[in-house]
Prior knowledge:
Number of domains: 1
Radius of gyration: 17 Å
Helix content: 25-40%
Number of helices: 7
Distance between the termini: 8 Å
CATH architecture: Alpha-Beta Barrel
Oligomer: single chain
Protein name: Radical SAM protein
Organism: Clostridium tanneri
CATH superfamily: Aldolase class I
Order of helices and strands: EEHEHEHEHHEHEHE
Structural class: alpha/beta
Largest sheet: 8 strands, mixed
Number of strands: 8
Shape: globular
CATH class: Alpha Beta
Strand order of the largest sheet: 1-2-3-4-5-6-7-8
Amino acid sequence: MIRYSLVEDKNQREIVLLKASPCIWSRCSFCDYIHDNSEDTAANVRLNKEVLENITGKYRSLEVINSGSCFELPKDTLTDVKEAIFSKGIEKLFLESHWIYRNRLNEMREFFEVPIIFKCGIETFDDNFRNNVLNKGAIFSGPEEVSKYFNSICLMVGIKGQTKDMIKKDIEYLLKYFQYGCINMYVENTTPLKRDAELIQWFRENYSFLEHNDNIEILWNNTDFGVGGE
């Protein structure tokens, strides 16, 4: 498992993949990423400390991800991240959070004392597909409500059952309401959900131009940020 890398294209930053306690939701039908967690807090802290030692401050920007939300990272790890931020001169932090934690984001802002870009895995704004197929556990009225909490969202493209109209609407909302966005092509894993290769090809033909947008990142493979593994 690769846990440290550099994102050297857009929004240049260092990125670390840390270990945390189990995801508070843990029921998304498309996700086996949650297997990268542990209830052994002491072991998580030790591993995370080793990963964080790689941070150099090269781009003055850092992204911290884990198999869930930043709120599930050990408190000692959060302290270690904060120490790295100040010792390496980090000026911008990217964190991920499930919708469930939307009312607690200021806790992280106050703790880290640097500007934070909060990312939320919305996957799609189609409520039925998001909650009844993907079982995302994120219920909201629309993009306006989401944008009140998060300035960056993650979308998923290419799951069987998803439609072109869903994706068109998702991209429209992303560009209209959010400062940043990450669009992930679905890669089959140990879950039953299947990849729709034709839909992904259609997206590539019609939306590859988004790669020229400084605020939009497209992950054609789920390891394109340089962290993760099989």
